[in-house]
Write a structure and sequence with these properties.
The protein has about 200 residues and is α/β, with parallel strands linked by helices. It contains eight helices and seven strands; from the N terminus they run ααααβββαβαβαββα. The strands form two sheets. Strands 5-4-3-6-7 form a five-stranded mixed beta sheet. The chain has a two-stranded antiparallel ribbon with strand order 1-2. α5 links the parallel β3 and β4. The longest helix is centred in the middle third of the chain and has 15 residues. It is globular and about 45 Å long. The relative contact order is 0.22.
C-alpha cells in the first residue's frame, strides 16, 4: 500500500485523490470565510462569468510550497512530462474539481497534475487549523499558497479555477480561467495532445 501511495505522489495524483484534494480546498472557505456557508454558496452562484482562455508564451515560474504535512514541494523545470497546475481559492474549489476527471481519464500517468490552494494573507493561527483539517480529510498533498505569492507569479484570478498547461521544458502552453465547460476541456485536450508522448 505504501508503495502505491509513493507511486501516486511521484507521478501525480490518481483521479480519486485529486478529486478529494481539490474538494478539500473548500476547507479554506470554512476556516477563512467570515460569512456563513449559505453566503458562500450564494456568492458562487452570482460570480461573474469565467474569463476567456489565454495563451501565455512565457516560462512557468519555479516555486516551492508546503503541503498540509509541512513537507516542502519544489515545482521546477524541465520535467519529463507535461504539467497541469490547477489552482483554486475558497470560492472556486468545487469548480476546479470538475477539471480533474476529464484530464486524468484521458491522460492518466502521461501528465503530472499538481493541485493547490491560493489564499490571501492567511493568519498564522489559522494555518495550523487548516493543516489539521486537511490532514484528516486526505493523505494527498495539497500545496498551500498562504500569502498568494505563487498565485501572483502565475497571474492567478480569484473566484475562478485556474488551469495552467505547461510544456516539459517549462513554457506555459495555455492558461484557462473558468469552469470546465466542454469547449474549454477540448482546448485543454488539444494543447496536451501536442505535448504528450503518443
Amino acid at each position: 500500500m505504501l508503495a502505491g501511495i509513493r507511486k501516486v505522489v511521484h507521478y501525480g495524483f490518481d483521479k480519486m485523490g485529486l478529486s478529494i484534494l481539490l474538494a478539500a480546498l473548500g476547507i479554506l472557505s470554512a476556516v477563512q470565510a467570515k460569512d456563513s456557508a449559505v453566503a458562500v454558496t450564494r456568492q458562487e452562484a452570482v460570480d461573474p462569468q469565467p474569463q476567456e482562455e489565454q495563451r501565455h508564451p512565457r516560462k512557468a515560474q519555479e516555486f516551492k510550497l508546503e503541503d498540509q504535512f509541512r513537507k516542502i514541494h519544489h515545482v521546477t523545470f524541465p520535467r519529463t512530462k507535461p504539467t497541469v497546475l490547477i489552482f483554486a481559492d475558497r470560492r472556486s474549489a468545487r469548480r476546479a474539481e470538475k477539471w480533474v476527471s476529464p484530464l486524468y481519464d484521458r491522460y492518466k500517468e502521461r501528465i503530472i497534475i499538481e493541485g493547490g490552494g491560493v489564499g490571501k494573507s492567511v493568519p498564522r493561527w489559522e494555518r495550523s487549523v487548516i493543516r489539521f483539517l486537511l490532514r484528516k480529510i486526505t493523505p494527498y498533498p495539497i500545496l498551500l499558497d498562504w500569502k498568494g505569492d505563487v498565485g501572483r507569479l502565475y497571474e492567478f484570478r480569484y473566484k475562478h479555477a485556474n488551469v495552467y498547461i505547461i510544456e516539459p521544458g517549462g513554457a506555459i502552453a495555455l492558461q484557462i480561467v473558468g469552469k470546465a465547460t466542454p469547449e474549454r476541456i477540448e482546448q485543454a485536450f488539444t494543447a496536451l495532445d501536442a505535448l504528450v508522448d503518443t
